[in-house]
Each structure stands twice: as structure tokens, then as C-alpha cells.
Amino acid sequence: MLAGFAAGPAARVRAQPAPGASASKTETPLGAPAGVRLFLCGDLMTGRGIDQILARPSKPDLSELLVKSAVEYVDIAERASGPIPRRVDPAYIWGDALGELDRARPHVRIVNLETAVTIAEDAWPGKDIHYRMHPANVGCLSAARIDCCTLANNHVLDWGYDGLRETTATLRDAGIRTAGAGGDQHEASAPAVIDLRAGGRVLVFAYGSPTSGVPQAWAARRRQPGVSIIDEYDDGAAERVARAVREVSRAGDIVIASLHWGSNWGYDIPRAQQRFAHRLIDDAGVHVVYGHSSHHPRPIEVHRGQLILHGCGDFLNDYEGIAGYEAFRPQIGLMYLPELDATNGRLLRLNLRPTRIRQFQVQRASAEEADWLQETLSREGQAFGTRIDRRADGTLDLRWG
């Protein structure tokens, strides 16, 4: 494995498209009030090297096999892409993404934050890689007006239970909701609840899977902090999600299931994962399956009018300059901007903004990179009945049905 790469209720009645109708034909212009628009992205990894260029870096000491200081990741990136500024403004890491967010105007902004936000010193024993961002740098999340950070992933407990407690407290104090990890099983499994200005709510449930490297020892219990862990290969897992949704949801809610699952590389989607995603929609009343952990975007699916993101890729990390897996072009990512019918959560459209990581910053992808993403996701999406079209402005649209 490359240094720096982490291992890696009963359903509510919902209106469905009329027989033969194709929701993919919806051409509502950006900004029109057709529904609830979300911003989702792949893993946001603001620890380690990224943390070192922010205003208040953590101690750089690492216990990795090959790299002993987080500063080395900055050096590697600079050798690949040129000088990277230090003590940057909190907005720096977002680069062009902030302008894209201003243009898209999503109602709710959700990211998978794959790092601890802590100054804790007790690294989880037996783990090869440990990510942390100094709590004083939480402004880098506020700069993008993030509403919710999902935490059910394989790095949130890198610095132990004290690190987890500080992470959730820091985010809470910054006005950012969390889901997927907490002080006990009840807190870890509770959804983030986001009220919409026009009425209604978005509920975000978050789960980490052992298939993505989340240690079973991290499972939150009745009197133990940790992560909300679920195994997509477990026959009863979907029913547990259904019960959780049933306990909290009410008519008109948009329900999102964030899943940190699967391998880091490759486009094949295990049949068990696809079945699990379908059951979340069919039996648990989930409207969006928001999957991540893969280091590159994976195929997109629409099941019974509901969106399934099997793997969103990495949105920001400190892997720049690290060789290997070039065929997947992992530096290229996407901003996912689904628009959902506010009455039933059905997908109206999905606009995608191609991005790339350069100098520890999210930048707009080149035309060639956008073309490559379009071709790759269209090819891999054939098995799921989806394809990608490119707009004149360089953004991408999902087509299905």
C-alpha cells in the first residue's frame, strides 16, 4: 500500500415517476426553486499535510512506517506542483470550489470529514496512519458554510476517545452538525437534523463499514464512544437503518444515508453493496445513498427515482505527488449537486462540477480532465443505466432512464 493512502421504516409511501417517465429529462435551470439542492463531495481530509499549511498547524510528528513528519507531505506536493503557501487563509483549501458553491447555491452542504479535529496525543495503537487537524483550523470548514460533517469513517478515532470528544465539541461550537460518531451508541446513530428555510428537514444518518477499514473496535456502544458501524453484508443491517429512520423521520423529510464503505480502488461495485443500497431505498425510506471511501469517483446509479453515489472519490487530501494508481487519476474529483423533489425526495437532476487537487487546494478541472471524467463515468455507468453529458459551461449532468 502506498504511504499516505488510508486503507483506505418500513418504507414510507413516496410518489414515484409515472410509468415510462424519465426524470432525467428535467432541465430546470440552476437557481430555480424546483426542489432541495444539496452539495455533497468525496472525502475531505484536512489533516496531516493540509493541516500543516493552515494557520495553526498541529505537531507534525507521525508514526508511519515511511514518513515521520506531516511536513514531508507538503514537501512531496511541492516537488510535484510548486510552492505551497503557509499559514493560509481558511478559505484557501477550497479554491475554485467556493465560487462554484456561490453559483450553485445549495440549500444544504454536507461533507465526509475524514480526520480528527484535536490536539490529543494518544494515537490509536496498531493503526498505521493517523490524521488530525488542529481545532483552531476549524474555520476552514466554516469558510465553505458546511452544514454537516459525517464522521463515520476510518480516521475519526485516529487520536482516541479524547480526540473524538474534541472533534465533535469543536464542530458543534463552530455551528456544524455531525452524524455517525459520538459519546455513545445513541449519539453516534442519531441523525443530523437540518431545517430548511422553506420548510421541511434534511436528516443525515451516517455509518461506517468494516469494508472501508473502520475497525470493529471503534463501534460505539451503550456506554462507550465510537462510530456507528454497519456491515452491508449483514442481512439485518438495512432493517436496523429502517428502524432508525422510522424513529425520527416525519412526512416531508429528505433522508440521506452516508456510507463509508468499500475498497479504495477500482470501479466494480460488489453485488452485496448494490443490494444494500437498494434496500435502504426500498425498505428504509432513504432518498440519497451517499457513498464514499474510494479514492476516485465510482459509477452513479438511480434506483426507483432515488440517487445512489457508490463512491465519490477524494475531494481534498495530501496525496499530491505520491506515485501509484495513476490510471484512476485520483487527483480529479467532483462536486455533486443533486436536486431533489421537496415532496418525495425523488431525484430531479444531478449536476457535477469537475475538480482537481493542486497545491493542496481544490481547483477547477481542465477541459481534458472533465472529458476524461465524462467518458469514464459514462462507461462505468452503463451497467447501472446512467451516462454523463457535458454542458457548454464545462459542468456535467447525469442522465438515466
**Which bin fits the share of residues in helices?**
10-25%
Largest sheet: 11 strands, mixed
Tally of separate helices = 9
CATH class: Alpha Beta
Query: What's the pLDDT, averaged over the residues?
Result: 92
Number of domains: 1
The ordered H/E elements are: EEHHHEEEHEHEEHEEEHEHEEEEEEEHEE
CATH superfamily: Metallo-dependent phosphatases
CATH fold node name: Purple Acid Phosphatase, chain A, domain 2
Give the low-confidence spans. Answer: 1-33
Computed over alpha carbons, the radius of gyration is 20 Å
What is the strand content?
15-25%
Commentary on this structure:
The chain has helices spanning 49-53, 71-81, 97-104, 139-142, 160-173, 185-189, 237-248, 271-282, 367-381, and strands at residues 36-41, 43-44, 108-113, 116-117, 132-133, 148-150, 177-179, 181-182, 192-195, 201-208, 226-227, 254-260, 288-292, 300-303, 306-309, 314-316, 332-340, 347-357, 362-364, 386-390, 396-400. With 401 residues, the protein is an alpha/beta fold. Strands 1, 2, 3, 6, 7, 16, 17, 18, 19, 20 and 21 form an eleven-stranded mixed β-sheet that branches. A six-stranded mixed β-sheet has the order 9-10-12-13-15-14, with helices on one face. The longest helix has 15 residues, at 367-381. The model is unreliable at 1-33 (pLDDT under 50).
Question: Can you tag this structure with a few keywords?
Answer:
disordered N terminus; six-stranded mixed β-sheet; 401 residues; 24% strand; 9 helices; Purple Acid Phosphatase, chain A, domain 2; globular
Give a nutshell description of this structure.
It is built from nine helices and 21 strands.
